[in-house]
Amino acid sequence: MANYTVADIQALRERTGAGMLDVKKALDEADGDLDKAVDILRVKGLKGVTKREGRSASEGLVITSIEGADGAQVGTLIELNSETDFVAKNEKFITLAEQVLAAVVAAGAANAEEALAAPLDGKTVKDVIDENAGVLGEKIVLRRVARVEAPVVTEYLHRTNKDLPAQVGVLVGTDAKAGEVARDIAMHIAAYSPTFLVREDVPEETVANERRVAEETAKGEGKPEAALPKIVEGRLTGFFKENVLVEQAFAKDPKTTVGKVVENAGGEVVSFARFRVGA
């Protein structure tokens, strides 16, 4: 007869987040010793890391941190992915995200590569993620890391499903005056997903491609040759209004732009970052 109880099974599941069958097998092998069963799950899980490499991890969460005082703040945003929303809302996964974020902040990492190499509990972030992936039985990926530095950094996290952690995360860096409207701008960014802060940030090759597509489309529509330059520039302006933050119609008042809102506050947006899980 197995040397463990239903309570032991539940305790091990809560401790590791592993599935019922895996937990029972580990307890059988460990003869009911919970600590030994945890080690067994970890070892077996790590052996399965390679097998999980080809699997898709498009669920998960975003989480943020803002450090420093007004006048010199640093915001960090990370996206940690899992394969299923079941794991995404698991307490062990959420705790892992918090630990990873703390390690990323402490290391000052600005991208995923630096973050994975950051130290965490005597190991690297990558090692800890792999260990947790083994226990949870799913591929777990630190997909993206963003770092925003500004006099004032404002965060906004949005849940697309009330039963899951935040799926959309935004950091906005501004000066002090624009800090008064930064929360509204962060919410706007979450909803309208701009790609660039200002028109000058759009790569030249992107502009050239948009201009080419606009011209070819206009020709295909049979527009007069003489009218093409004006039509192309008009459509290019439309591209900027859709993708450049300061040129977008403001979510709370579409009659004005985000740029005008910031200008009326007498301030400036320095930078921003936006992640949506899986996108």
From TrEMBL:
Translation elongation factor EFTs/EF1B dimerisation domain span: 75-278
Keyword line: Cytoplasm, Elongation factor, Protein biosynthesis
Subcellular location: Cytoplasm
InterPro entries with a match to the protein in the record: EF-Ts_dimer_sf (IPR036402), Transl_elong_EFTs/EF1B (IPR001816), Transl_elong_EFTs/EF1B_dimer (IPR014039), Transl_elong_Ts_CS (IPR018101), UBA-like_sf (IPR009060)
GO molecular function, one term: translation elongation factor activity
Keyword Protein biosynthesis in annotation: yes
SUPFAM superfamilies: Elongation factor Ts (EF-Ts), dimerisation domain, UBA-like
Stretches that traverse the bilayer: none
Main location: cytoplasm
Chain intervals for the UniProt region annotation (Involved in Mg(2+) ion dislocation from EF-Tu): 84-87
Residues in coiled coil: none
Stated family: Belongs to the EF-Ts family.
Designated name of the protein: Elongation factor Ts
Organism in which the protein naturally occurs: Demequina sediminis
Lineage: Bacteria, Bacillati, Actinomycetota, Actinomycetes, Micrococcales
